[in-house]
Amino acid sequence: xxxxxxxxxxxxxxxxxxxxxxxxxxxxxxxxxxxxxxxxxxxxxxxxxxxxxxxxxxxxxxxxxxxxxxxxxxxxxxxxxxxxxxxxxxxxxxxxxxxxxxxxxxxxxxxxxxxxxxxxxxxxxxxxxxxxxxxxxxxxxxxxxxxxxxxxxxxxxxxxxxxxxxxxxxxxxxxxxxxxxxxxxxxxxxxxxxxxxxxxxxxxxxxxxxxxxxxxxxxxxxxxxxxxxxxxxxxxxxxxxxxxxxxxxxxxxxxxxxxxxxxxxxxxxxxxxxxxxxxxxxxxxxxxxxxxxxxxxxxxxxxxxxxxxxxxxxxxxxxxxxxxxxxxxxxxxxxxxxxxxxxxxxxxxxxxxxxxxxxxxxxxxxxxxxxxxxxxxxxxxxxxxxxxxxxxxxxxxxxxxxxxxxxxxxxxxxxxxxxxxxxxxxxxxxxxxxxxxxxxx
Length: 441
What we know:
Elements: H1 2-8, H2 20-27, H3 29-42, E1 86-88, E2 105-106, E3 112-118, E4 134-141, E5 147-153, E6 161-166, E7 172-179, E8 185-190, E9 196-200, E10 207-210, E11 219-220, E12 229-235, E13 240-245, E14 252-257, E15 271-278, E16 284-288, E17 313-319, E18 322-327, E19 332-337, E20 342-348, E21 360-365, E22 371-375, E23 381-385, E24 391-397, E25 405-410, E26 416-421, E27 429-434, E28 438-440
Antiparallel strand pairs: 1-28, 2-24, 3-27, 4-5, 5-6, 6-7, 8-9, 9-10, 10-11, 12-13, 13-14, 14-15, 15-16, 17-18, 18-19, 19-20, 21-22, 22-23, 23-24, 25-26, 26-27
């Protein structure tokens, strides 16, 4: 009966803490309008994207509001060094210190923090002004042994995505924009072929495929559906994509490409968008969306009568045959077995005896399968759900009660964790925590 209560309770009313983002967006309307005005005034009329240069300015950008899906645009197959195998040490992390450090972050012993970017300020040594409301993010190893952290901007009209490139020693090499003038870019997901999928969290939102290196223009992947996109994850074993929708009655989606490219990548230009239909026992079947482009009057999530609706889909991640995703409206973390086609609740914040984790939002996974969940509100923590089911607090941001934690992502060594406080400071702060999260095998 426990499984039945979990699955049939998908449409429960939003708890008080889950309406927080909507409330804050209403209260920040004037601030967002000021941000949009300032950015639009600064935008040029460049008609092509120029690759960023070290220490250079923001890239020139075209207006991509009505750009078509360009199908099989050739994002390069990059020669990236194979990642070193790692062992997670997160189960060994001790309690958070009683007092925050100089950056206002409570950390376990052996960990340190730094602020790598502040919204509205240049990311030195570049001339790129870090975007407002930094949200979903990911890291990408580079050919030279460094890495790139990409970060969405959840701002209307001029949202987009920015990137910080790091040298092998962790110093900042440069920063630049990789997606301009898109709408309310909330979360997304990295691909195994080293691109970033950025979702627009608006009712007719798109997924944009972006080049973290900033060398190629972004491409709208319309075949992935038109709806209020949150996050995306690639099942690189089967070539399927999974997507979440941030609506109170949103759906859990799967994209099945029509073909595989010669290089083995799924072609994101054409395929079937499907909705999950979940039975009481957790068994999942998939139903194709008739009008994935939302060309008619019926929203994508309402086109299949039997579709299961989820209360505010948020972060999503794929690892070794399982898809993990969160629903903030009921503080749940879900685990989908792609082989058995079965969905279960990994964590239920409404019924958990330990109230450590609430307001579940963006997620990432460690090398050992620990599910790291960023909180939207609550007490501003990143909390790890260990494979045993035990919870472990990784950090806590203090003094920023009207913000949320966004964009957690490890660097290739697994010893640095990046994330943002979306509305910390004056429009957002992006942090790096360094410490023994992992060790080489």
